[in-house]
Amino acid sequence: MSLFRRLGVVLVSLLFAAPAFAQTATRVQAADLIYEGSFRVPGPSGPGGETGDGNSFNGGGEALSFNPVNNTLILTGSRCCQPTTVAEISIPDIRNASSISALATASYFQPHTPVAPNQNDKGCGGPIGGTLPYLSRLVVSAYCYYDGGYVARSSHWAGPRNFSTSGPFAGPFAVQSPAGNVGGAPGYVAGYMALIPQEWQAALGGPALTGQCCIPIITRTSWGPAASVFNPADVGVLNPVPAVNVVSYDQNHPLDGNAGCDSTSTLFNCNTAIGGVIFPAGTASVLFFGTQGIGDNCYGHGTNDPALHEQPDPNAPGEVLCYDPASGSKGGHAYPYVHYVWAYDANDLVKVKNGQLLNWQVRPYATWSFETPFADIRRAVNGVAYDPSTKRVFVSMGEQDRPRPLIAVFRLQVGTTTPPPPPPPTQIDSDGDGIVDTADQCPSQPGPAPSGCPVVPPPPPSGGDTTKPVLTLMKPTASTVSGDTQIAVEATDNVRVVGVRFEVSEANGTWRLIEDDTSTEPDGRTFYTIWSADTTPRTIRATARDAAGNTAEVTKQVNGATPPPTTPVDQVVSDWGPWTGGDWSPCVNGTQTRTETHTRTEISPASNGGRTFPLSETRTASQACTVPPPPPPVDSCTARPVQITSVGWPSVNQGSRGLDFSWRVTGDSAVTLADVSLKRVNNRWVLTLKDSRGCTGTRNQ
After folding, report:
1. Which domain holds residue 549?
2. Nearest 5°: phi and psi at 233?
3. Residues 362, 484: one domain?
4. N or C: which end of the chain has fewer CB atoms below 10 A?
5. CB 22 within 8 A of CB 350
């Protein structure tokens, strides 16, 4: 890798670490979201009615995203069936009406389609968590709903935007999760997604966000809103997909900072649900939309009688009832519930990316609840999407048009608008049925195209990308080389060159790797490496490859320059060995050095006694370097966690009186026990200890 390339990383960081726009952009407040109206989603797109076949929005409407190419919304179908489907619908007239029946109804642009049939890499089924149209593709995330064994590792799929006719997507592929999450599970990234405005992409290091919060088996996911920066174009190309977490919370650092999941809180508890996230252009606001339970937190069966709240459950000895007219099921309750927004300053997320803050140290600059005319007592928010060309916010309100969701529409009063992409060709009645509908979309397959539609070229003979990269050797130009020799090529491709492998031939017919270069110079085409040439004639070889596995090769024969003789003619001289040295010195002003030595042996002929003369030479080598950033601050709870070493569990009737346990904090004898909590969760004991530092440790029966 070249010196220019290494210095370029530093220059980019200095230029974009804190742009002036990022410091002064407007922060969205509650009053900036103005309700415009709502509309209904359509009925089933196939036979079977509202239930049992996955062709309806019954209980669905999650993973909402906006498709600017078609001016449509993409969202999930019913949760009744696996795999979950996705569908694309139009945006009809938006009406601020007094009754649901007076609202307009969307129509299908693409019907319900199962795009991710496997749903998970470990056979654990679950719902789709997010959709994101990006470039010419649709990226989809899905997660294992109840992953008690932490088996899931992958979460994202990718396929064409015309998903209803393209077949199953490619996947699943892994996306890097924050360090320290249990088992590397994808519960921090396998949900909602959103685009990052162009003016923030350099500072945050990517074009999109992906995240997840508050799903069953809470220890595998974030204890508050979470987001990681990634490039959707990498899904299906790199595995795992690189991602940088910029906000999340683990069980030792929940968002509310107090009792965590079991708390009564307006920030986070076991009843928090995040439906999605948006990042409006022209603002410094990352807005998470969801549902928050703000009442007394309680675990048990729900009851609609407030007098029975936290009274013994006659049908479940040792458990209590929880007042919750929204749900009678067994689980967490915190009635009443509100539609909720958690608003974060993007400047804080940049600080996490740059190592100035830890991901759990970020706090919302504001939170607020909001209402719609047709809200029910559950206040479910299933998804959110943003249209930057109109500054409209679309919110999927779960089952408010029972059994289907309603789409509520707000307009943002701040920020900037982004022009939409060129519209697709005007639809015509291409099938001659007298109706302009989804069957009249411009064809995606080769063949005659209706007037106004582009002609689709035929695919490569074997399907997929079969075009090889084009590779040209630029250096060396001479046939005789010596010392450090630059090997440079120019590589181009009809899609993208992902790397060039540089090799040199050995005397035994094998190839020795010099470097596998996956980075390019700023022109995006030039790859090169440095090779220390010797006196042996050799062949140098460069092989370029694209994402589809197509390769192109170029070779060149070179001769090593012969050094002038430096020894008497009556001696036999061995070749110099390779230069070797110790550790590099610390990086100072972009340079580090070390002392290197190489040796050779001179042997006199037998007539001179056959004596051996070991010779050596020493040099000072230098190379460019980058001063590493200071390590992030060490978190006391992570460095010295609360460890529950043994537990004698009580019977259900004994309660905490029968509890016996031992604990410790390694390396810190001054820490004392501050609080002990023993609760029944899912018919199992859960023991939580809090020490004098505020750190917690949990152990399940």
Report:
1. 470-560
2. -65, -20
3. no
4. C
5. yes
